[in-house]
Design brief:
The protein has about 180 residues and is α+β, with helices and mostly antiparallel strands. Helices cover about 45% and strands about 20% of the residues. The protein contains five helices and seven strands; from the N terminus they run E-H-H-E-E-E-E-H-E-E-H-H.
């Protein structure tokens, strides 16, 4: 599904994630009356689904973007340009802590889901999540430094050109008004 660029760094996901997905699904079903009835079905299907979802997870960091692939039946590939990243946060909750996992949320301008309020790049179980966060931020900052406009050299030809443009604008303004 995902073609990996030559300059990409791949992040890996913890094997504990498969068990976490299974228990998270079971816990979600157990807290509802209808879900309790569905628990035996989840016991059969959940293990298969968790393994398939885990196998489909990908996270690549390139010099210009992050590529995330996920899904079982409906596969999704998301490319996030590094220059659009506003924040990367690490999440830890009781269930995540029980499995020794961390959540990594990548916030970008305009990518938050309006109905759920969740980021599309909300990843659980990334190994070395803090190092991955630091790598992404380092590459973002490197890219931003490369794309900053260079200062105009302070020489006579540039100053002369700017003065000519200013004088032309003054002549145009005087003729217009």
């Amino acid at each position: 599904m995902t073609t990996v660029p030559a300059n990409a760094t791949r992040a890996h996901f913890s094997h504990k994630l498969k068990v976490y997905f299974f228990f998270y699904g079971a816990l979600s079903l157990a807290i509802t009356i209808i879900g309790i009835v569905l628990l035996p079905i989840w016991a059969l299907v959940g293990v298969w689904w968790a393994k398939r979802y885990y196998r489909g997870l990908r996270l690549y960091v390139t010099d210009r973007s992050i590529v995330i692939a996920k899904g079982v039946f409906f596969k999704q590939e998301l490319t996030i340009p590094l220059d659009k990243i506003q924040d990367i946060s690490i999440r830890e909750g009781p269930l995540l802590a029980k499995f020794g996992l961390l959540g990594l949320r990548i916030e970008t301008a305009g990518q938050r889901n309006a109905t759920t309020g969740k980021s599309e790049a909300d990843l659980i179980g990334v190994e070395n999540a803090r190092q991955v966060r630091d790598l992404i931020l380092e590459r973002r900052d490197t890219l931003a430094a490369q794309e900053r406009p260079q200062p105009i050299p302070n020489n006579d030809s540039a100053l002369t050109l700017l003065l000519d443009i200013r004088d032309s604008l003054h002549r145009i303004e005087s003729k217009l008004g």
